[in-house]
Design a protein that fits this description.
By secondary structure, the chain is of the alpha+beta class. The protein has 10 helices and 15 strands. It has 3 domains: 94 residues, Tumour Suppressor Smad4, CATH 2.60.200; 28 residues, no CATH class; 261 residues, no CATH class. 28% of the residues are buried.
């Protein structure tokens, strides 16, 4: 028993609250914490216990010895769970298993580093006898020491009964609390993960469209709504195929500018040029070529201007893959605007159908516009974006690369429109050729650029690599 400086006996320390060394275990890593020390837990490498789980905060929690014993405190934005319940501060009065980040996250185990020492009996008194009375400082009487408090009961799951905050241990309520831990779910940091938010959005948005847009008299409304709904899925697919690298704040600003430019240019220039051709359902080859060049220039121009702006005013060299990805953004924007315009005709065709076959054909045309139109334009614009990226970085052939980059998708676009009135199978062949080019560039962009860099036609003019001089003469001695 400890003796205070005044010579009086202090009451014995509670033996059920660990105050000595603690052992922390997380994902196979162990740390021993001694009194006077603290332990930090999280994803950051400077923590004492580090985990790679993405749902755990960088500085998630800290363990330190306080007045009441060892305390675990959640200091990060992600949650901590004890027996499925969200906790922010826990007194370590027994071995604990704490789930970090989510209820299924990595488990931090806290336990004494060694068995607690047995209590020392009071001198000259049998262990079974009550402790000798102590003289209370500043008092004029002797006081018996308080009896040691009973150990805390084991944790027991209870659920709210809903009657004024009372708690219940009804077996059925307990079972429901285990099977439907709604409170734990609501505090789970996993809600901040993009995939779960995307699932919620794509499950609820069609119903929200029905609730908000069902009374619209504009027949293009369904086209806008569902194309904007589908476009992010295509964009994620293009991002995974092209692998353009880090998309930072500057690239996001450029992408927004490309979207705005494309929408403005469509209404100010593209539609006027197409309208002057008086295009009917069956389009001849020459008007189809004019339309193809008109629309592909609409999509390629903002990517080229953005690349030149970054190069001149920000000294940023736009990577070929990033230029290709920005091209798909311009293409998706164009496709959304175009199909919203044509959706009106498709809906009128469905309503005016005189047979089931006509109604089915019109409905399929509407679906094709909604789901595929933006994708088709993005594929053509992605091909142009690849050539624009090459032109930005190899200025010796810049003009030729830009012309070639616009011409190839424009011809594919024109053939698609020209053949649409004769055979859908020929259109499918054109689309297959377009996909071959697009997917080929996503797979071999780096290899093509390497060969371009080594070719005498381009060598020495790369903005991406130092100039390579050509000399057949041996170096001077």
């Amino acid at each position: 028993m400890d003796i205070s400086s005044g010579g009086h006996f202090a009451p014995p320390t509670r033996m059920d609250v660990p105050r000595g060394d603690l052992r922390l275990s997380l994902e196979g890593k162990d740390v021993t914490v001694r009194p006077g020390q603290s332990a930090r837990i999280g994803r950051s490498p400077d923590n004492d216990l580090v985990t790679g789980a993405p749902t755990v905060s960088r500085q998630h929690a800290v363990l330190r010895l306080g007045p009441g014993g060892w305390e675990f405190e959640n200091v990060g934005s992600a949650a901590t769970f004890l027996n499925g319940e969200h906790v922010t501060r826990v007194v370590v009065d027994r071995p604990l298993d704490l789930a970090l980040g989510t209820t299924d996250g990595p488990v931090l185990r806290i336990a004494p580093a060694a068995p607690a020492p047995s209590a020392v009996p009071v001198p000259h008194a049998p262990p079974a006898q009550p402790a000798a009375p102590t003289f209370a400082a500043g008092a004029d009487r002797w006081a018996a020491p308080p009896p040691p408090p009973p150990p805390p009961p084991p944790p027991r799951l209870t659920v709210g009964a809903g009657n004024g905050g009372a708690r219940t241990t009804d077996p059925l309520a307990t079972a429901l609390g285990i099977l439907f831990p709604v409170q734990s779910w609501l505090h789970d940091s996993g809600w901040r993960q993009g995939l779960r938010l995307l699932v919620i959005a794509y499950a609820l948005l069609p119903l929200i469209f029905l609730a908000l847009l069902s009374h619209s008299s504009d027949l293009s409304t369904p086209g806008w709504a569902y194309s904007v709904y589908i476009a992010p899925l295509w964009l994620m697919g293009f991002w995974m195929l092209i692998r353009p690298g880090h998309v930072g704040k500057q690239i996001i600003q450029v992408a927004v500018g490309i979207v705005v430019w494309t929408l403005v240019w469509i209404n100010a220039v593209t539609i006027r040029i197409n309208g002057a051709l008086h295009i009917s359902r069956s389009i001849a080859l020459l008007p189809a070529l004019v339309v193809g060049f008109n629309e592909e220039i609409t999509k390629a121009l903002p990517v080229l201007l953005a690349g030149l702006f970054l190069l001149k005013y920000r000294s940023v060299k736009l990577d070929v893959r990033m230029a290709m990805f920005l091209g798909t953004i311009a293409g998706l924007t164009f496709g959304i605007a175009e199909q919203a315009f044509y959706t009106t005709n498709d809906i009128i065709g469905i309503n005016q159908a005189t047979s089931r076959n006509e109604a089915v054909t019109a409905a399929l045309a509407f679906a094709e516009r909604i789901f595929v139109d933006g994708f088709q334009h993005a594929v053509w614009a992605g091909i142009a974006g690849f050539f624009i990226g090459m032109a930005l970085n190899y200025r010796r052939r810049r003009v030729q690369l830009i012309i070639l980059g616009v011409t190839v998708p424009a011809i594919l676009h024109a053939l698609n429109d020209f053949l649409a009135g004769s055979s859908i199978w020929l259109v499918i062949l054109v689309q297959a050729a377009s996909l071959l080019l697009f997917l080929g560039y996503t797979m071999s962009a780096a290899a093509i650029e390497k060969r371009v860099r080594e070719s005498p036609l381009f060598r020495g003019q790369s903005m991406m690599m130092p100039a390579i001089t050509d000399s057949d003469q041996p170096p001077p001695r």
